[in-house]
């Protein structure tokens, strides 16, 4: 008898002549489940520390500051000077061009007071100064204040009953504020998608108003520093400004490259009545989603601009939305005197009320002179003569405490703001009602 035939490793199904088949005594198995569990437990602390480091670094990058965006110099956070325009020797070659359109109407729009909540706080002092900045700088024909619920308080009365100014060329009084009933937006699009949040309602109303009347839309916390007309903005069809990305741990230096912005911010819009770009922007709300805060207000106009570049004029982020809402920029503007709005050459400053609320709510006719920062130096330009004396004589207390802004009236960068926490306290002025 063959040893192989009697062996337990011999396959009995094979008869003589069928050869031999080797059967291993054991089968090698892979890594067992307890091994991988043990490995995961050993690596878990390191992974958690690494993950927390990314989260903290993305919101509070210690190596980044406002100065990281420019070479460190006395004017490191200011935009570079533009080269001089080439001389034009003759205009005969331009004779074939069509005559320019009439200017966009010098009509300023605000959208405010959309909340149904009772006991709204008084109109805030900083918003009064922001509107005065547009009145004094833009010299508008009229200011239309679109609201569902009219504001109240000392500073609202000062704005509402502003006496206007005399147009020397016509002798007419201009700049008067007119309160207009805003549409209560409940839905949007052919599918009637519900619009519930005040921020989305305000986004839609501003576009409808510009489509129907044209003019300049401004958020209530926007300070106008230079006339738009003298810079050619009123001869365009639509003018929007870029909003840069914030620098983070994951988006480092160079991550705010100008041709790849976060989007086009809708806090300042200059538009001609019936402008095609505004129509397309409103049409994009067919895809509206209420859980997306900046999709239609910031990101969508940039998408449309790349699709229809001839329908609008785009300005650098330095025109309206610089410094940014990031902690380093808020710190530079509201806690130091290192940013110079006069030297910057920018046309306006969007004050990012949602991030700067502690600083703005501390302002009144007294503290604006006592607190010395880049922001207060700029805002003092719009303080009325003898304002503090009249305010105290009236016994008013407006200007401190709550800002008075409905949440829907703020231009909020929700993704960043909700995760960023409070403002920086890296020295400088600590703002409070007790500041002296």
Automatic annotation (TrEMBL):
Residue spans crossing the bilayer: 39-58
InterPro entries: GlycoTrfase_DXD_sugar-bd_CS, Nucleotide-diphossugar_trans
Superkingdom in the source lineage: Eukaryota
Region (Disordered): 389-436
Record bears the keyword Transmembrane: yes
SUPFAM superfamilies for this protein: Nucleotide-diphospho-sugar transferases
Gene3D superfamilies: 3.90.550.20
Protein name (record): Glycosyl transferase
Lineage start: Eukaryota, Fungi, Dikarya, Basidiomycota, Agaricomycotina
């Amino acid at each position: 008898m063959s040893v192989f035939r009697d062996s337990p490793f011999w396959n009995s199904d094979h008869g003589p002549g069928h050869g031999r088949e080797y059967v291993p005594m054991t089968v090698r198995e892979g890594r067992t489940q307890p091994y991988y569990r043990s490995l995961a437990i050993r690596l878990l602390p390191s992974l958690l520390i690494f993950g927390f480091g990314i989260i903290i670094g993305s919101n509070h990058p210690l190596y980044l500051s406002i100065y990281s965006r420019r070479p460190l110099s006395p004017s490191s956070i200011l935009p570079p000077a533009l080269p001089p325009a080439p001389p034009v020797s003759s205009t005969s070659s331009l004779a074939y061009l069509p005559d320019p359109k009439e200017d966009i109407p010098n009509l300023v729009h605000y959208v405010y007071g959309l909340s149904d909540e009772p006991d709204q706080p008084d109109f805030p002092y900083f918003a009064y100064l922001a509107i005065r900045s547009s009145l004094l700088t833009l010299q508008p024909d009229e200011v239309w204040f679109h609201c569902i619920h009219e504001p109240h308080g000392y500073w609202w009365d000062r704005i509402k009953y502003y006496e206007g100014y005399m147009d020397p060329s016509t002798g007419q009084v201009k700049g008067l504020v007119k309160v207009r009933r805003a549409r209560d937006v409940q839905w949007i699009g052919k599918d009637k998608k519900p619009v519930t949040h005040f921020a989305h309602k305000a986004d839609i109303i501003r576009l409808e108003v510009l489509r129907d009347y044209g003019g300049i839309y401004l958020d209530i916390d926007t300070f106008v520093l230079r006339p738009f007309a003298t810079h050619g903005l009123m001869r365009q069809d639509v003018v929007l400004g870029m909003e840069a990305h914030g620098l983070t741990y994951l988006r480092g230096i160079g991550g705010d490259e100008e041709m790849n912005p976060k989007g086009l911010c809708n806090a300042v819009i200059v538009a001609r009545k019936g402008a095609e770009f505004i129509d397309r922007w409103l049409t994009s709300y067919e895809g509206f989603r209420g859980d997306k805060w900046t999709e239609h207000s910031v990101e969508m106009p940039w998408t449309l601009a790349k699709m229809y570049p001839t329908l609008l004029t785009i300005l650098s982020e330095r025109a309206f939305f610089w410094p940014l809402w990031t902690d380093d920029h808020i710190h530079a503007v509201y806690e130091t005197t290192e940013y110079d709005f006069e030297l910057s050459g920018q046309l306006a400053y969007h004050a990012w009320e949602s991030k700067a609320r502690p600083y703005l709510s501390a302002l009144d006719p007294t503290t604006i002179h006592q607190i010395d920062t880049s922001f207060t130096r700029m805002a003092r330009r719009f303080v009325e003569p003898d304002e503090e004396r009249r305010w105290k004589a009236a016994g008013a207390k407006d200007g401190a405490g709550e800002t008075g802004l409905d949440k829907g009236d703020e231009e909020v960068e929700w993704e960043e703001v909700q995760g960023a926490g409070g403002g920086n306290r890296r020295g400088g002025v600590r703002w409070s009602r007790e500041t002296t």
